[in-house]
Amino acid sequence: LIFTMKMLSESFLKNIKQSLEVSELKAIGPGGGGCINEGDVYASDIGKLFLKRNDKSEAESMFRGELASLEAIRNTGVIRAPKPYTVIVEPQKEKCENSTVVLVMEYLDLKGSKAGAALGAQIADLHLHNQKLLNSPSTSRITTLSNDDPAEESDSRGSSSLIHEKRFGFHVPTSCGYIAQNNSWCDDWPSLITRKLDEQIHKLQSESRPGREALLLWPALQRVIPSLFDDLKEPIIPSLLHGDLWTGNVGSVTEDGVSKPVVFDPACFYGHHEYDLAIAGMFGGFGSAFWSSYFDRIPKQAGWDRRHKLYQLFHYLNHWNHFGSGYASSSLGIMRELTK
After folding, report:
1. pTM for this predicted structure
2. What pLDDT was estimated at residue 94?
3. Interatomic CA distance for residues 270 and 168, integer angstroms
């Protein structure tokens, strides 16, 4: 793919420079993009920056969720992720136009990743980080802040990485693609995954035949979901999840002569660690070394296969809502299988 640069207005660039407190911000080349966002590389006083941009109506919420996600991953210290700086919204030129929104982050010279053993081990460590905080005497605070004061919660979570989270969810909405996820806190995991699936089901076009079948299958699947966790011998401890862990969102960077795995484009929340492996197994690219390394640290538990299907269902539904009914067959196949 060849990406061309979209020049940001001088006034917008001035706002970004003021926010970053830099004197230089010079475009030096396109940074690539995907089916949701595009971005460009800029030189600045603080090093090369990647300015990721989008002008959808959902862009500001999407980027603020990504910024919070990158901060959360970086705070664990277990895996490399780009440093996020800020989200800037361009003032509207016309009432009928959406504003361009930019997420400013550290630019990394990413290489392709084989998603091998090092990545598998570090993703497992990411998933175990919250559990280790529970058992660590150095954890300064063990808390779950309420949703009653989101500003206080966001400030508190940004101030320390030593916070053990007891509940499932996240302190801001995050977006898998451009669809925002309701991450309001739940005391148990089955309630949160049921809500996430329910939101995807009810976004489908109910007037279509596949959409109607999904809506008809959903009540039966809802009744099945709690039983999928009956085989677990221990309660689920919330894990910080990447949220969109497919090969397009991983890479590697060489630093100090060492190649390190990198993750980006996260849609974080606290959930069951198995959830992150669902999309990793859907589109290929994660080799046997990744899986072996991961399961060496966090072994499979009884009932894994059916829960894996449930978590893949979320991503098939999400793709159906983003890209159309080409994902309907896979979604409905899982729903029929789990409700047999």
Report:
1. 0.91
2. 61
3. 5
C-alpha of 180 from chain center: 11
Spatial separation of the C-alpha atoms in residues 57 and 317, rounded to whole Å = 21
Distances (CA, A) of 208 to 225, 316, 322, 325, 328: 25, 17, 16, 9, 11
Contact in structure between 167 and 146 (CB atoms under 8 Å): no
244 is catalytic: yes
pLDDT in tens, 265-279: 999 999 999 999 999
3-state secondary structure the chain: CCCCCCCCCHHHHHHHHHHHCCCCEEEEEEEEECCCCEEEEEEECCCCEEEEEECCCCHHHHHHHHHHHHHHHHHHCCCECCCEEEEEECCCCCCCCCCCEEEEEECCCCECCCCCHHHHHHHHHHHHHHHHHHHCCCCCEECCCCCCCHHHHHHHHHHCCCEECCCEECCCCEEECCEEECCCCECCHHHHHHHHHHHHHCCCCCCCHHHHHHHHHHHHHHHHHHHHHCCCCCCCCCEEECCCCCHHHEEEEEECCEEEEEECCCCCEEECHHHHHHHHCCCCCCCHHHHHHHHHHCCCCCCHHHHHHHHHHHHHHHHHHHHCHHHHHHHHHHHHHHCC
Q: For position 156, what pLDDT does the model report?
A: 43
Token reading at 47? 């090093």
What tokens does 121 get? 């081990």
Of the pLDDT bands very low, low, confident and very high (cuts 50, 70, 90), residue 317 is: very high
Q: CB burial class (10 A; 0-12, 13-18, 19+) of residue 94?
A: exposed
> Which of 262, 255, 229, 251 is closest to 126 using CA atoms?
262
Report how far residue 309's alpha carbon sits from residue 264's, in angstroms, rounded to the nearest whole number. Answer: 24
Considering only CA atoms, give the Rg of the chain.
Answer: 20
Which of 45, 109, 155, 244 is labelled catalytic?
A: 244
In the block, residue with structure tokens 């990411």:
126
Query: Encoding tokens for residue 329?
Result: 């067959």
Domains of the chain, earliest start first: 10-106 (3.30.200.20), 117-338 (3.90.1200.10)
